[in-house]
Design brief:
Layout (H helix, E strand, L loop, with lengths): L2 H8 L6 E8 L2 E8 L4 E8 L9 H6 L2 E2 L10 E7 L11 E10 L4 E7 L33
Antiparallel strand pairs: 1-2, 2-3, 4-5, 5-6, 6-7
């Protein structure tokens, strides 16, 4: 098989397509895009539950989820709370039971849930995992295959 024949065979491949889930004007769109033509070939508005992945802007606001029929049609998020007092690693210091429920589109707090009264916040001691050089393995050299 010559080189030209191999290349001409590639032109018979199916068009490259991508599936896209997008949130626009309060609606979730399920789209198909023909990448070769740069065209949207299908755009269906999702009428059921579910939303596309979060954007960076959404992540800056909080975490998302679906929390029951009373919140149908809304993008609701629950934010777990942490303490950053005396540590840069706040994930090591969760405030158990303290959750803030936020409407991500309105950027409004819907409610604050506090079920963790009496649960202590973990201490900040040894929670700073700042990178340090550790030479304890400097005596070990990389092993090579003896063959």
């Amino acid at each position: 098989m010559n080189r030209f024949h191999r290349l001409s065979h590639l032109s018979t491949l199916s068009p490259r397509k991508a599936s896209v889930v997008a949130f626009l004007n309060g609606q979730t769109h399920l789209m198909t895009v023909d990448l070769g033509q740069g065209l949207v070939t299908s755009d269906v508005v999702n009428t059921g539950s579910g939303y596309p992945m979060l954007t960076i802007d959404d992540l800056e606001t909080a975490f998302t989820g679906w929390f029951g029929p009373d919140e149908e049609g809304k993008r609701i998020i629950k934010v777990q709370c942490y303490s950053n007092q005396d540590t840069p690693n706040f994930y090591m210091r969760p405030i158990e039971g303290l959750t803030v429920v936020v409407d991500i589109d309105k950027k409004e707090v819907i409610k604050i849930i506090d079920t963790g009264c009496g649960i202590p916040i973990p201490k900040a001691t040894n929670t700073d995992y700042t990178y340090t050089i550790n030479n304890s393995f400097s005596h070990m050299a990389p092993q090579t295959n003896p063959m």
